[in-house]
Structures are given as C-alpha cells and as structure tokens.
Amino acid sequence: MSVVSPVTVTVPASTANLGPGFDCIGAALTLYNQFKFTCLDSSLPEGVRITVTGTEAALVNLSGDNLVYQTFLKYYQYLNQTPPSVEIEIKLGVPLARGLGSSATAIVGGLVGANQLAGEPLNQIELMKLAIALEGHPDNVVPTLLGGCCLAAKREETNSWEICDIPWHTEILPVVAIPNFELSTQAAREVLPNDYSRGDAIFNIAHFGLLLRGLTTGRGEWLQTALHDRIHQPYRKTLIPGYDAVATAAVEAGAYGMVISGAGPTLLALVPSYQATAVVAAMTAAWQEEGIKAQVQTLALDTQGTRVSK
C-alpha cells in the first residue's frame, strides 16, 4: 500500500480556568502530544489505521471512534468532502483525563492534520472557530492552537469569538501535580450548582480582573489574592483527595497559590521561579502523605501553539 503526504502535528497541553477564569481563560504548557497523518491511496475497512506510543497508550481507542479520527472526519464533513483513508500515529506526552487538555489536543490535532492533507483551505481563525464548536468551550482549544495565555469572550451580536492574548510574566512558573487517578470532565461539571449568588459573581469578577494584572506584572501579592474562586473550585475540590493538604504545602513552600487545572484532578501552582524546586518537593510530599502518588514538575508557558512539520 503506497502512501502520500505525511504530516506531523505537535500540540501542547493546556491548563484552563486559572482559578476565577472559569471556562474563558487558558494557557498552553510545555507538554505535548504528537500526531502523524499519512494519507493512503488505498481504502481501509474503517477508513483509518491508528497506532499509539507513550505513557497510557493502552488506554487510547484504536478504532474509528478515536477522537482524533472523529475530528478528522468532521473537518471533511464541514468542507462537504469525502475524507481519505489515513494512518494516524500518536505519541502521547499529555496525561489522559487529568485536566491538562488531552481532548483539546486531539481536536486541534485532528483539525490541523486534516487541513494540511486537504491543502490548507481553512486559515488559523477558521480552524479555531471549528475547534471551539467541537469542544463546546474555548478555554483549552484556543491556547492549544495559538500558544500562550488566551482569554476568549463571545460577541453576542454575531455569535463570534474575540480572543485576547494575556501577557504572562517570565518569572511566574507553572508547577503541575498530576496524580495517578483520573477525573472525568462530566463528573467535575455535575458537582457544580446551577445558580450562584450575586456575591459570588462579584467576587469572581474582581478576582479575575486582579488575576489578569497579576499575570502581566508578576506581582505576587496580587496573585495570592487573585487565585481564589467561588464558581467551581469549592465544589470540585471535594472530588480530589488531599486537595487542601497539597494547597497548604504549596503555599508554605513559596507558591503564590494553587488551583485546579481544568476539571482536575491535576493541581496547578503558580510559583516565583526561585521557589519552583521547593514547591515541587512540597506538593509531592503532601500527596504522598495522603497515599497518592503524583508526578510533580515545573513547566513553562508554550508560546508557539500547534506546529506542523513535513
């Protein structure tokens, strides 16, 4: 079976919400999934052949129901074109179902790969809009595609999205603590209330504004206040054993604060660069005392977003 047009798409992980920025802000991180697409000139029974390597590879669906391939198909449906048979080789670097945007990498990877094989008829903005529509919210897919820290707001008149890049001070480092258990986004959403008080809404508006200024300036006292939230974290933390102990340990070791990354269970501390090593050790030890093994590491902001190589 001969092949044509191999293309490799490298997609960063992301962290969403950052405390008070529920469902509207996210940042790309230096963990990656890689997707290699090879268009085949002979048909396959399911239209696709999928191989996966990397940590948790055994958990990935290899059938036509795979999210990367389903997104690939939806791209061609959007263009009203027949999709080609394709081989997709996946290299996993982003943990699954941990609140680091693994599904967003699959959606963005599938769209960008399909767009490359189709001759790039869609530009980056068109791909972004399609990714948001497929994911249902912008906070992971936008930074995953574009890189950096991004705020997304919907324009009511046109039902379109305004995307604003948020400057991130170079001295603020993200430390992620990834536990050895999963938490589904559905479960994390089910614990949220349907209504909030005016006081909670005002609290989050004020803290989100302060978060934006804290990220830009690197002022620690602003970040210490800004990372608090009343919309999702008080409810979701009940699903994460040891949350309070890990948060206390992170702050005592020098972190500005700790939040739930996306829907969790990964916990994200924002840390001055000179305190990163101490915070990693403290968060690791705190979860160990709870009987939970976690991979804790210092990352950086990915500023390039999704990239393509041929």
Short structural description:
The protein has 310 residues and is α+β, with helices and mostly antiparallel strands. Helices cover 35% and strands 27% of the residues. It folds into two domains: 3-166, 2-Layer Sandwich (Ribosomal Protein S5, domain 2); 172-298, 2-Layer Sandwich (Alpha-Beta Plaits).
Q: How would you describe what is shown here?
A:
- The chain is an alpha+beta fold and 310 residues long.
- The protein folds into two domains: 3-166, Ribosomal Protein S5, domain 2; 172-298, GHMP kinase, C-terminal domain (Alpha-Beta Plaits), CATH 3.30.70.
- Helices cover 35% and strands 27% of the residues.
- It is built from ten helices and eleven strands.
- Strands 1, 2, 3, 4, 5, 6 and 11 form a seven-stranded mixed beta sheet that branches.
- Strand 8 (257-260) and strand 9 (267-272) form a beta hairpin.
- The two termini are 20 Å apart.
- 45% of the residues are buried.
